[in-house]
Amino acid sequence: MIQKYNAVVGQSGGPTAAINATLSGVVRGLRESGRVDKLFGMRNGVEGLLEGRTVDLFSLLPDEESLKLLEQTPAAALGSCRKRLPEPDDNEGSVVYDAIFGFLHQNNIKYFLYIGGNDSMDTVLKLDRAARIRGIDVSFIGVPKTIDNDLCATDHTPGYGSAAKYVACAMKEICRDCSVYTKKAVTIVEIMGRDAGWLTAAAALPSLYGDETCDLCYLPEVGFDEDSFVEKILKIQKHKPYVVVAVSEGLVDAGGKLIGEQAQSGAVDVFGHGYFSGTAHVLEDLVRNRIGCKVRSVEINILQRCAAHILSKCDIDESVAVGRYAALSALSGESGKMASFVRRKTRDYCSDLVLADIAEVANNSHYVPREYISEDGSFVTRECLEYIKPLIDGEVETVFENGLPKHFVIS
Question: How sure is the predictor about 2, in pLDDT bands with cuts at 50, 70 and 90?
Answer without folding.
Answer: confident
